[in-house]
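Quick one: C-alpha cells for this chain, please?
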Amino acid sequence: MPSSFGQLEKLRYVLGIVRDANPFQQVKLRDCGLPKDFSSVEEFIEGCPFTTKDELACDRIDNPPYGTNLSYPLGRYVRFHQTSGTKGSPMSWLDMPEDWDWMLGNWDCVLDAAGVVPGAPCHFAFSFGPCLGCWTAFEAAARRGCLCLPGGGLTSEQRLQTILDNDVRFLFCTPTYAMHLAEVARESGFDIASSKVSKIIVAGETGGSSPEARRQISETWGKALPFDHYGMTEVGPVAYEMPGEQGGLRVMLESFLAEIVCPDTGKPVAEGEQGELVLTTLGRAGCPVLRYRTGDLVLPQWGMDDSGKPILDLVGGILGRVDEMVV
C-alpha cells in the first residue's frame, strides 16, 4: 500500500489532537501499543485498532446525544448532520468550521474531475434534511461560483421544471432517482432528452458505476453522462469517478488513509482480491475516525500517476456490503 501526500504528518497531527482531548479515541488508543512518536504509516496501521459503526453507535447511546468522539468543547461545533440509519437509529455527527472547510475542499476535487465550471447552473435533487452529502456538495459548488438550485421540498415534476427552466448543466442526485426522474418526465411530457444537462453526479447508492444503470441514465437523459462519487457522513467525501467515463472510483489519498482488508480476518487482501474499505480521516480532527470499517466491498487497484504519486482506484465502484445490506 503506497503512501504519500504527507499522510504520516497528517496522521501525527490528528493523533496529537485526539490523544489530548478526545475521550472516545483516548479509550481506544490507551492500551493499543501505538507510540506517540510512531515513525511510519505502517506502524500506525499495525498499532491502531479498527473502529466500527457499532462502537460509534453504542457510544452515542451511552453518552447522548452526540457521544464522546469530540476533540473540542461543544461550543466549537457549528454543523449537525446524521447518518442514514440503515442499520438502526441515525447517528448524529458534528463538525467545526475548519473540518467543514476540509470537506468542501474534498468536494472541489470531485467537481474538478466532473468538469463543473464556475457559473454553471447546478440542481441538487435532494431533500436537504440532516444528510451531510447534499449540503457539502451544494456549498462547494456555491463557493466555486456556480448557480446552485436546491430541490429540497419539491416534487419530481417541480424539479424537472426547474432543470428545464434554468438550463441546468449539472444534476446531483442518486442513480435510482435519476432514473425515476426520467420515468416521471416520460409520463408527464417533459422533454429531458433536449435539456442542457451534461453530467449527472450521482452518489448514495452502489449503482453509480454499474454499466447497466449508467446506460439507462445516459440514454434517458439525452446522452448526459453519469459521474460517480462516494462518501458517507462518518468520513465525508471520499472518492470520485476514475478518468475515462466508465465508472469506478478514485480515492482522495491526500485526505484519507485507505486500506482494503479481508472482512473476516482484518488482514490486507492480496492483489486482485475484493475486500472491505477501511478509512482514516486526515483532516477532520474535531470528530475523527481512525481505521473505520466502512462495510463497503471494493476491488482495489493500486498504481502511480504520471507524477509518481500513488493512486488507489476502486474498480467497478462500490460492489456491495459486507453485511449484504438491502435498502
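The first strand starts at residue 79 and ends at 82.
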